[in-house]
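Troubleshooting: if your tokenizer reports a length mismatch, compare your output against this known-good record of 260 residues.
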Amino acid sequence: MNILICNDDGIHSNGIITLVNTFKSKGHKVFLVAPASEKSAQSHAITIREALRVKQYDENSWSVSGSPVDSVLIALEHLLHEKKIDLVISGINAGQNIGDDVLYSGTVAVAVEAMCLGFKAIAISITSYEDQFFETASTIIDKLVDLQIYDLIGHRQLININVPNLPLSEIKGLRICKTGFRRYQNIVHQDKDHRNRDIFWIGGDSPIWEEYNENIDGYLVKNAIVAISPLKVDYNDYQMHKTYIDFLEKNKEQLNFWHS
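Known-good structure output:
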């Protein structure tokens, strides 16, 4: 297979290096395109008001000066546009991407952008920022790719995988689940700089889950189970269409202000 690997932790991160080495050792053609430096929590940001720079490391590896989504865009639209890319894998991210994290995650955004461009994509993360067992996640994604899990990915769909940060022998299984909903607390922190001017840091305390059970990604990884969440990107709330149609019909005379 021709596999494009990207991330948001940067081209020199241990997670992406582990992933690249794993798939190369299995005989896949691996292309590596990633941010030049760490770009976590960039979500789906793209750079439109400054030039991007690309640095080539070898025949199949490049870094991009911008965001994670900049990287996958430049990879698929320019660097590799003549290649047949069978799968895009984003990760292995240092830190979990569970619950509402998928909205902020550059790792997940890479997979979403690849999906938007018509490619099958998987995001994978582990649940720790230190003392990481990247080999566990790498072994699991390698086996899932061997089993062709990507064939299940449909139109405007992707897969988000979170792996407990444990040795492989301590993993208790894999389960399909939902991304849960959780609310961060005390997100904005005020401080002073060296000249006593106000500065602000963004980073919340432990979040509160709306629900927390065996069907939720956060619960599973906490209990040593790999959480596999099939995602579909579609912001439309189809169930509410009739409610809003009724609202407009009920208030049509008041809303007809352009003829009043």
